[in-house]
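Please review this one:
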Amino acid sequence: MRIANLDGRLAVLTEDGTAALDVATASGGRFGPSPAAAYQAWPSFVDWARSADRSAAVPYDQDLLGPVSPLPRQVFAVGLNYVDHTAEAGFTQPEQPMIFTKFPSCLHGPRGDITLPGDAVDWEVELVVVIGTRADRVPAPDAWSHVAGLTVGQDLSERALQLRGTPPQFSLAKSYPRFGPIGPYLTTLDEPGGPGDLRLTCTLNGEVVQQGSTRDMVFDVPALIAYLSSVCTLHPGDLIFTGTPPGVGMGRRPPRYLTPGDVLESTIDTLGGMRHRFVQRA
């Protein structure tokens, strides 16, 4: 099942993803129009959505899609979670997940323009986990039961600010406006294709710059949820950016960064894709 934020309103998509059913209208007001509010009643909402009559669904403009969880309390991100990316970054693989945050104000939808704040902005395609039910000290075998679904993300980073000073400014450098695009929709776990082996691809102006699989994660999704929830309570709608495969701009020799006019496309098997154009700051 695919669930979307369509112009700020909660929608359920048809199986092929080409038409949308407005939830507030179709449910007769049982569920409101807010995409963020759906996570607060996630189990009952999903039960309704699975059997909802989609005959009234209508085609929609993909440019109107917004972030699938627009108001999370927390946005976590995981560094060095793919072995080959760790190597290209010049680090030793951590013995436990390396966690930082992205501020929720950086979230953006799956399409549109993104302003470059400097000349060292890098790309990182990532699988993003959306939490569906409260998770507090959850053991790894139970972790998937707390997940609403999965989506595609980009952990955009301004590397000059990120590496400035000691310690580096990870969270701040990754939280410029629109530096956390996610989408195009939320895919629930009952969709075909196992989350343990999803292929991630990132292209820059049509050139493949990143390609990898979630099977190459050092810490898989259940391990990440268990680790995070041992410290922080995870709330419905929270996001976890789970790390990126190799091929980022900073790891190239010489480094390669985004420039005005560049088009970045980010896709994950069965989860859809995003497309963003980068523009110069006015």
The chain has a mean pLDDT of 96. The longest helix spans residues 42-51. The helical segments are 23-26, 35-38, 42-51, 83-89, 159-162, 170-173, 221-229. The chain has seven helices and 19 strands.
